[in-house]
Each structure stands twice: as C-alpha cells, then as structure tokens.
Amino acid sequence: METYLQDWRTTPAYRRLLELASRPCDLTAPGLLTPERLQRYRASGAGFDLLYAFARLDDQTLAALQELADQRRAVEQFDMMRRGVVMNRIVGYECENRAVLHTACRDIFSATPKHPQATELAKQQLARLHEFTQDLASGALLNEAGEPFTDLVCIGIGGSDLGPRALALALQPFALPGRRVHFIANVDPDDAAAVLRKVEPARTLACVVSKSGTTLETRTNEELVRRFFLQAGCDPRRRILAVTGKGSPMDDPERYLRSFFMFDFIGGRYSATSMVGGVPLAFLLGYDAFVEILRGAHEMDEVAARPQITDNLPLLLALIGIWNRNFLGMETVAVLPYSQALHRFPAHLQQCDMESNGKSIDRLGQTVSFQTGPIVWGEPGTNGQHAFYQLLHQGTTVVPAEFIAFRQSQYGEDTEVDGTTSQEKLLANILAQALALATGRPHDNPNKRFAGNRPSCILIADRLTPRAMGALLALYEAKIAFQGFVWNINSFDQEGVQLGKALANRLLDIFAQQRRQEAEAPPTADDLPRHLLDAAGLLNRSRSR
Amino acid sequence: METYLQDWRTTPAYRRLLELASRPCDLTAPGLLTPERLQRYRASGAGFDLLYAFARLDDQTLAALQELADQRRAVEQFDMMRRGVVMNRIVGYECENRAVLHTACRDIFSATPKHPQATELAKQQLARLHEFTQDLASGALLNEAGEPFTDLVCIGIGGSDLGPRALALALQPFALPGRRVHFIANVDPDDAAAVLRKVEPARTLACVVSKSGTTLETRTNEELVRRFFLQAGCDPRRRILAVTGKGSPMDDPERYLRSFFMFDFIGGRYSATSMVGGVPLAFLLGYDAFVEILRGAHEMDEVAARPQITDNLPLLLALIGIWNRNFLGMETVAVLPYSQALHRFPAHLQQCDMESNGKSIDRLGQTVSFQTGPIVWGEPGTNGQHAFYQLLHQGTTVVPAEFIAFRQSQYGEDTEVDGTTSQEKLLANILAQALALATGRPHDNPNKRFAGNRPSCILIADRLTPRAMGALLALYEAKIAFQGFVWNINSFDQEGVQLGKALANRLLDIFAQQRRQEAEAPPTADDLPRHLLDAAGLLNRSRSR
Q1: Active-site annotation holds for B386
Q2: Mean pLDDT of the residues in chain B
Q3: Which of A112, A361, A481, B108 is the most buried (most CB within 10 A)?
Q4: Could you give the C-alpha distances from A297 to A45, A273, A415, A417, in angstroms and in order?
Q5: What pTM, to 2 d.p., does this model score?
Q6: What is the number of domains present in chain B?
C-alpha cells in the first residue's frame, strides 16, 4: 500500500502535535504579539500575504506541521493530482475512480503543462469561448432585431452556481459596459420568477449548466426559462447556451445556440475555472479578464507546489486548520472577507470545503475516528462585527477566523471622515479584531472580560482584481485538497447527497402517480413516505383537489 | 434572589434530562417514524406548524423539557419581559439595565397592551410613518422637479440592516409598483459605490439608521451619500430621513427631511418591527403591509405565552435547541429555508441569536461552565443540497437542521416537469432530507452508508406573506429569548463587540495623527498596534507617501 494511504495518526508528526497541543501557544501572554512575530509569521505568494501570527502556534508547532506535511507527502500528492493520478477513489470499493484535474484548466501559460491532454481539452474550450465573446463584440451574434445581447441568465445549482456567482459578484466593477449576469439555482419557482422579472427577453441569453444534463432543479428551471422566451415570442434555440458533459442529454446542438464542454475529471465545486465559470464570467467581464482569473489561479497552483510550508500559503492554511480542528478541538471555521464584493465567497467555500471534506471514511473505506472537515460559514466584515462577533469574542465556543482583506478598494471612491478613509477604517478593524480575539482583556466587571486565545489568520492582497480573485479561489481549492490528503479522505466525491435525492425521487413518483390517477393509490408497504407526508399535512392544504 | 436567576443545572429537570441524554431516542430504529409520530409531534400557532418528529426525543424527553420550562419559569419570564421588567441586566454589575420591549411595537391590536406606555410610543411613531407613506402616495412629498421618489437607500449596520434587509428581500413580490429599496452597511467604500451606481439621485430618498447617532460605518456612509446627492445637484436635506434615538446627534431636524425615533428598550437586533424596519418596509410595501407584519409578529408573541410547550412553538424550538446543544453536544444549528425569498433570513437569525446568546457569564456575573448560544448558519434549500449537505449526511460533526417551508409559492408561477410542480419538488425534498438525515441507510459499500440520527425540525406555513414573515420573525426572537431565560444569561446586551471597537478607534487615531503630521509620530509604549500594523505591511503598500 502506498504510504500516503496510511492512517495519518500513525505518523510521528501526529504524535508530536498531540504532545504540543497540551500546551498550545498562549496568545494572551504579555509581549507575545511583537512586531517581530508579525513580520516572521507571514507567508507570501501569488500576490497574497498570509499573516499567521494570531494563530495558536510557535516555531515548534510549525516544525511539527512541516513534518506532518512531509510525512503525509502532501505536496507530492498535490503534484500527483495535477499530473492526473486517480485521486478520486476509495481503494477496494466501487466509486467514481477519476482523476482530479481542475488545475489543468489554468495550466495554459507554459509550454509544458502538468497534464498535457487535459490542458489541451481546456484550451479547445477556451478557443470556443473566445470565439463566442468575439462574436458578441463584433455583432456576429445578435438577436432577431439585430440588437446585441445585454443579459445572461445562468441556470445551474451547487457547483454550477456558487463559484461563478461568487466571482461574478466579486468582480462587478470590471464588468463590460451594459453587460449583466443573473443566476437561477433553486427549484423554488419564486427564484426564477424573481430573476426573470429583471430581464428583457429579447436582449437576454441563458446558459444552462449541468454536467450530467439530468439535474432536476436545472432541468425544471430551464423549462421555465424556455417558456419565458416563448411567451415573449423569442426563439429559445437562438438564446440558450449549454455547458455540459459530452454525450449528456444536453449535448444536443438542435436545442442550444452553442455548447461548451465539462469533463469528468473536474468536480462541480472545483469547476469555476472551467467553462462553468468561463461562460458567465467571459460574458460579463470579457475573455481577457477570464484569462486573468486563470492566471491568478495558476500562480497559486504553483505556490501550492512549494515544499516549505512557510512559503506555501494553501498548505500552511490547511495545516493551521488541522491544528485547530484535530488538536485544539474546533468544529467550525469563520471566513470573514473585509470586502463587500466577496459577500458570496463564503457560500462558495462552504460548498467547496464541506462537500469535499465532510466525510466519515478514509480512502481505504475505513470509518475514521477523528474529525474531518469543519463547518465553514461567514459574512463580510465590518458587518459581522455588528452581528455575530459577540459570540466570537465572548461565546463559550471558540471559532477560528480567516480574515480576507485588500489594501485598496475596487472602485477607488472613498471619503475621509474623522481624518481617515473608509479603506483605512476597514483595515484598522481587521487588525483590531485579530488583536482583540487573540489577547482578550481582563476586567473587574465580568461582562467586560475577554478570555482571548481565539485564533485567526489574515489573507491580504493589494486589490480584488480578476487575477487576485483567481489566486484566492485556487488558494482555497488547494487548502481543501491538502486537508483531505493529510486526513487520507477522498475530497472529490459526494456520495452523501445521494440518499436524500433518491428519497425525494420516490416521493415525487408518488405525487406524479397520484396526479395521473386523480385518486389515492391503494397503500403498500412502500408508501411510508407518502403516509408520513399526508400525516404531517405537509402538502394537503395546498393541494387543490 | 428570584428563583429564575438560579443556575439552571440545579433544577430536577436538568438532572432528568442528563439521565435521558445517555440514551436519546434512536431515529434509525425500524418503525419509529410512523405517520402517528408525525401527526402527534406537531405544534401549531400563528399560521405555522412545527413538525418535530425528526428530533431525537420521545414523550419522556418532552415531559422533562416541559418541567425544565416550568422550573425555569420560561413563560413567566417572557411575560415579565413584555410587561417591561428590566430583563437586560447583570445583577451586581454595571450594565445596560434596561427593559426589553420590542414586543410592544406590535402590541397594537388590543385595547389592553402589556406595556401601555411603550405601545403608545410605538403608535405615535406608526402615525408618523403612516403620514409619511400617505404623503408619498398623495404627492405631498415630491422631488425638486415635482416627481415622486422611487428608490430608498437605507444606511445602517448590524441590527439596523440585517432584519429590514432580510424582510425586504423576502417580500419583494408584495412591493408597490415602481418602489425599490437598497441597503448600504459595510464601511468598505465599495459597498456604497456599488449601490449608488444603481439609483438616480433625483428620484432617491435615503434613510440613515443609528440609535446612538454615532455608529462609525453609518456616519461614514451617510457622508458618502450626502456627497452623492450634492454632486448631482440634489439637496440632501430634502432627501435624507433619520431613524435614531431622541437626543442623539442625529436628532437634528435641520439636517433631515423627517425623523423617526427608536427607544432604549429595543435592541438593534430586535428592532425590525420598530421604525428601523418600518421606514424601509412601509416605503417598499406600503403602510398596510407593514401593519400585517406587525400582526403576524403579535400573533406569534401570543403563541409564546402559552404554558404547554407542545402548543408554544418558539418555546418548543428553544427547548429542542437546548436538548441538542447541552445534552447531545451539538455546537451549531443550520437554518435551511426552502424558499429562495428567505435567502438573507439566516444572516438575520445569525446576528439575532449569536449576539444575544454568545455569552459566557450568567445574570449573576458568574462564568458559566456549560455551553450557551450555538453557531447559527444556513443557506436556502434545495441549493444547499448540492453544496454543504454532504457534511450534514456523512460528516463527522452532527448538525441539527431547522427547515422552513411554505405550501404555496409567492408568485404562483410554476411549471410541471416529470408530472410534478416545482413547489411539490421543493416540499418533497424537505421531507426526503429530514427522513434521510434521521434514518440513515446501511450499505455494503462504506461510502454509501449513512449513520442517521441527525435531527431536524420543519417549520411550515401556507405562503410567505407579510403576516407570515412577521410571525416567523417573532418566533425566532422568542426562541432566542427563551433560551437565554433557561440558561440564565442576559440575551439583551452585547459587551463583546466593545473591545474590537476600542482597539480600532485607537488605530484610527494613530492613522489620523500620522496623516495630520505627515510624518511618523515618535514611538511610545501605546504604539504597539501601529507597530504591529507596520510590521505586517497591512497598509504600507497602499499608502501613497
């Protein structure tokens, strides 16, 4: 058996970390948080600095985390992943058994990509995307009245929605004049209804994203959008783009204006740099800006290849997360961007992290007896300071925080109030929060006491540009993969979503059958869900018969 | 000492629950989830049903929870709160020492309100609000060009933002024709820049919300908005409304078009049914719809007065939360609305709950040695099913879920795909998720195994109307208060936000001083934060000098 598939708790580094965890670095110790510590506990790469002086670690912990990374062959596993080794597997059991090659989508800047075939496929799709954006710009692609398209409605859910949506919102200031994108995800019919009110059908394109071409929510919403176009006298075939797997039911040139392909070796939650993100982001920002996102992501993928953890931001962030989760016992991570533009980025990370690492068996199929992926949540600061930070400072549960900041604003429109700019206020607040969480404060009034020793990290770059966005995205993708590599879990499948889906389909079959028969079917042993439902009155007030 | 101020762990009910927790109800037991259980484990009130058959409890647990509620005098404390007893206090220590009377804002439907003076004050403000909306409708309030105002930009943060924002988004389908509201909260200058791009200054009003009139973010954003109006040649005094405390620096008729008052006895996070929510919601939806919100909230406040926990939805939800948190050891709660319209409601609850109950001392100033408020997070379903539900089903951490559902959609625009409507799909999915989480599934392939015993509750009403929204809001407000009453913590102050604020102000003083002097100040012992900042390079790349 490959050593990297062994239980990580058999490594000497694990035992060393367990020892160290009995007396973790005390952030409340007077004189600990010196300028020197901040200077030294700082890693840089791909335009980002990771400041980790506010984490509960010292040089000994760092050395043990480096050993853990080495003994778990973390960087080597990341390289194997990039080279196309089948990392999405459970040894000895039926599972997806696939390579994991989202990194190939952005490995387009060198003559010698890590996985030439996957990158070649990515380049073919990029060429199609380039052609599409050129046709939009040149006027080769116009509506029936000869007008350009202004709006794109994206239909997808989960990985086909959260990443592209978060990035599109984050990069609004870089939008091409007159271009807008919208997103419909939920099977809740009010989601589509609300979005379709905002667009003029004649000037609108739609993009349906589903690798399998069978996702229930997406098919349903596609149907709503087709109907919306038809009711306005617009031809859906001249308006709807497809992003799907080759050979899926959606791979049908008769029904779609243009098609772009996704591949088996890119999971939904890792697909923002594939055509899943490419179509909406290139429509909104232009092709060149999308390539800048890819450039930033690729630069961070290269940072993730560095052997020293103090140079490798994603690996270091992953290891600090493991230190907090498995050795200091913290169940959640708060991702707190001090940038309003990133307000949906925590939701993307929540999916990417929790769907990847919310697992209970290792890559040998054995039930683990340690904690895996944490609960990831968060909202932008400074808003959160006026909301849930109370618990972060004085609650009974310790929540490690990951702050994300930029030295400059996006729009550059700022004002001085009380002698400082808004951007200065934003940055002062991050540092103040990190300090307050770390050091706490004694006080005679117990209500004004702060225990301290609540760890955080700060990620900071100059400005939230397409390139920085790509780097930040890839940083977290790599962080999540690294944690899975250390824990020896498969971060790349999602069997946990299947049972609910199967049960929902059984219920829907029953509803459909009832609707067809216009009468109650005679009860059978298999009817439990319907009985439960009827008993609960979940539907009976709304059903008209 | 009043018995309700005693340590809750001294009650017989606590000890009984501890016993019961050693063998909690096994949801995976064959035959447990019968139609009868669903029928019986269902509480109704104010238009909502609470289905709790999927919680890990049985009749014995329910009896013990009822005893806990009784021995902690939970309903009595809620009544004391409504009658104006000073519930916001820590005995023996300096603190806010205030009554807690958000319920008085909606106690306007009977001749004998619980706290006549507070309700009278609320009615006076409602009358001013009514006049304002009538003046908008009649044309008494127009811009310089004699045109009606179409947009309202709300400036506030935390409690002055999250509740009104969540409700405004939830009730979009009920908006008056041509009316829009927008929200600016973050001190990030990009927040204001992005919002102000969307509105036409001449047709826009602004509403600044701050009880103290000194909130840094709000003052800064007010300044940006004033400048925006002036640059467009629009008079800010004819455009900016104030919602503030009487006597605050913002209580200044010279600077504002109209002023509405907030009172000391309503905390920010409980202020959505005061003028804080009133101004934006009545502008958007009309005065009558705002009164409908109040009606729903009041109806739920009355439900919260019921002595039997199986009739009292907020109390029962609170007790189930305590069962999960303190007896079954769960650190978080996921709030999962199966309604896209509620997509910001979890963020409001996150603030309301975590700022209220993220506390470490009891109402006698003693450090608690039990867990208080959990981490509250969530996103709408079915979206979440394609994202973080993997962890809910197969992760190593158990997350109790609170599903929120409606039998009918808001817009009533639906389509049948595969024989069922979208709304049916939505409801089938909730039930399927609750079932799958509860029962789990054995399987030969460990990757397809589900452990089960992951508890949930379902809240369901007919349709998300203003009245239902008010009831849902009040349900959670009361739930949070009940948990505080049982734990004997003060849910109504927020000292935990002070330290970060004080440190940020120190840093900003230093920045302002540097800016004034255009030179480095000579270092003093008090300069640590600046040194930290300089050492970290947090600002130095963006500062131009």
Answers
A1: yes
A2: 94
A3: A481
A4: 12, 8, 33, 37
A5: 0.96
A6: 3
